[in-house]
Write a structure and sequence with these properties.
Largest sheet: 6 strands, parallel
Distance between the termini: 26 Å
Strand content: 5-15%
CATH superfamily of the largest domain: Crotonobetainyl-coa:carnitine coa-transferase, domain 1
Helix content: 25-40%
Number of strands: 11
CATH topology of the largest domain: Rossmann fold
Radius of gyration: 25 Å
CATH architecture of the largest domain: 3-Layer(aba) Sandwich
Number of helices: 19
């Protein structure tokens, strides 16, 4: 973990993926993330595969560099203990609906009363000024409502979900950015703030950067949809023995490619040489690629295209990433011993930082592993903590359980 955010304390009441992904990024950058969990734990702990009931692969990958504090927030003693933890925190994060947070005593006004400089960031499904404010939201729901599933329709026009939790992770990136912006605001102004990061609006913003297209203008210069991305020929191209991705983008790229495949006359066309005109007819050019690629093997294409500096790539599966030569060069994957889960493979943070120290990553915590330590740091005595344990407000004294 990098030490860019060392000294920043985040109280993390998020669950499943969107919030935990955001706070893992912040933990990777050095923040002290205290993960608040109910007595039964974050529900994502149970998602398989896994070697133990409460530490599945997805949970492992979204929750390193955190500490786990179990509190039953439905009990007044649990809420009081949380306030003790928040009192000295810099940031509070959750991805609940606001009404649910308020019932638990976790609204901005409730927490600001004990920490005026608190940066409060939350990610509901929908913005609270809209008609969907109270609805629940998960990745598939937002893929459907944002237009993403239709963008990913198959050749028959059947909508499809992307086989990755893209809306959760895009939402998580927005949430992490909001935390950093809030902390920067506090550093400059000395005041805390509350930032809402709705999942639906985050995905709509993400997609409309290019998909707003002609509707950007009033009156419209065309419909929504980025034409290049909607071309039926925009796909991995079949070669003699497999597939290759080829993406001529600049005028130089296109002229080099067209000359290579024997279409020098097309390379000299004025519309090919003009970026705006070429953009309007890009589907015609993609068709040229599709007609040319079956004539050579994948390796022949890669070799020829790299020689003329035209962007290209072999087609890989997710499993292929484990043996990717470039990822080996940059030490992207490593193996380590988790204290209870045994040997695991870890995908490191993608960042590279110079001029700032690093420390070893903290392993993903067992449920309640840091309960006692976190409460002691918040000022509770051993007797007070023991009382919480006897009341069932906490269910772990911080000792790791063996698998």
């Amino acid at each position: 973990m990098f030490q860019l955010l060392k000294g920043l304390r985040i109280v993390d009441a998020t669950t499943v993926v969107l919030g935990p992904y955001a706070t893992r990024l912040l933990g990777d950058l050095g923040a002290d993330v205290i993960k608040i969990e109910p007595r039964e734990g974050d529900v994502f702990r149970a998602v398989r595969p896994g070697r133990s009931d409460d530490m599945g692969a997805g949970f492992l990958n979204c929750n390193r560099n955190k500490r786990s504090l179990v509190l039953d927030l439905k009990q007044p003693e649990g809420r009081a203990a949380l306030l003790d933890v928040v009192r000295d925190a810099d940031v509070f994060v959750h991805n609940m609906r606001p009404k649910s947070a308020e019932k638990l005593g976790l609204s901005y006004s409730q927490l600001r009363a004990c920490n005026e400089r608190l940066v409060y960031c939350y990610s509901p499904g929908f913005g609270q000024d809209g008609r969907h404010a109270g609805l629940p939201a998960y990745d598939d729901i937002i893929q459907a409502m944002s237009g993403l599933a239709m963008l990913n329709a198959d050749g028959n026009g059947e909508p499809r979900f992307l086989p990755t939790i893209v809306c959760d992770k895009v939402g998580g990136l927005h949430l992490a950015l909001a935390v950093l912006a809030g902390v920067t605001h506090r550093h400059i102004s000395g005041r805390g703030c509350c930032i809402e990061v709705p999942m639906f609006e985050s995905m709509a913003s993400f997609l409309m950067a290019e998909q707003l297209a002609g509707e950007t203008f009033v009156p419209a210069l065309g419909s929504t949809g980025y034409e290049r991305l909607l071309s039926p020929y925009r796909k991995p191209f079949r070669t003699r023995d497999g597939y290759v991705t080829i993406l001529p983008y600049t005028t130089s790229h296109w002229r080099s490619f067209l000359t290579m495949v024997g279409r020098a006359e097309l390379a000299e066309e004025s519309w090919v040489r003009d970026p705006a005109a070429r953009s309007a007819r890009v589907n015609q050019l993609y068709k040229v690629i599709a007609e040319a690629t079956p004539k050579r093997t994948t390796e022949e294409w890669i070799s020829a295209l790299e020689q003329v500096d035209v962007p290209c790539a072999r087609l890989a599966s997710v499993a292929d990433l484990l043996d990717d030569a470039h990822l080996r060069d940059v030490n992207f994957f490593s193996e380590e011993e988790h204290p209870t889960q045994g040997r695991i493979r870890v995908a490191r943070s993608p960042f590279r930082v110079e001029g700032v120290g690093t420390e070893p990553d903290k392993p993903t915590p067992e449920l309640g592993e840091h309960t006692r330590a976190a409460l002691e740091e918040a000022g509770l005595t051993a007797q007070q903590i023991d009382k919480l344990l006897s009341l069932g407000v906490i269910n772990n004294d911080g000792t790791r359980r063996e698998t």
